[in-house]
Amino acid sequence: MRLATILLYLSLIGCTAPPQTPTSNDPVITANIVVSSENLHHYWTPIATPYPSFPYSARSIDKATCVNIAFIIGQDGRVHNPTVIKVPPNTSKRFQKAALKAIKKFTYQPAATNSAKEKVITHLVFSFYQPLDDHSNKKTQTIVDEIAKLCLPDPPKHTLN
After folding, report:
1. What is the C-alpha separation between 21 and 6, in angstroms, rounded?
2. Which residue ranges does the record assign to the TonB C-terminal domain (predicted)?
């Protein structure tokens, strides 16, 4: 059942990064409900969502990138089994580590429509951009929005018979 759930989710989002093995401190948690980040509020409401720090060793790089992370929100409202599922080519592992470190600190409370505290599989895209020159806030936001599109899930591939 767990394998079928994971394969269904990966087919829905288009996986490009190799799956990561959970650490011994993070027991394998499974969920049967796949929820897009846009519809997550129907199940869980964020309490704490610290944004990842721009990796210090990469601050001199005038490059924008993104990291898409899939994870399960357990009945305890904590993030379980976070996995990097998509990054642009040539993205430094430092950005992936920063995003994983941040997502592990996220906490949620059940939405009013989720009194049973159903576990869900979802994903979130983190954008990283550290301009070396002074961009206007509007221009910076435009750049960040464009970069985030690189990490959006691929549309499901359908075949016609």
Report:
1. 13
2. 50-128
Domain positions in the chain: 2-149
Give the model confidence (pLDDT) of 34-56 as tens digits. Answer: 999 899 999 999 999 998 877 77
Task: Please identify which residue in the block is written with the tokens 């898409």.
Answer: 68
Question: pTM score, two decimals?
Answer: 0.71
Comparing C-alpha atoms, which of 18, 23, 109, 25 is closest to residue 70? Answer: 18
DSSP letter assigned to residue 157: P
Contact 153, 12 (CB under 8 A): yes
CA pair distance 89, 24, nearest whole angstrom: 29
Q: What is the three-class DSSP state of 39?
A: coil
User: Bridge partners of 108?
Assistant: 46
Helix runs in 14-136, H state only: 93-103
* Assigned CATH class of 2-149: alpha beta
Read off the pLDDT of residues 5-36 as tens digits, 9 standing for 90 and up.
Answer: 333 343 334 434 444 444 445 556 788 899 99
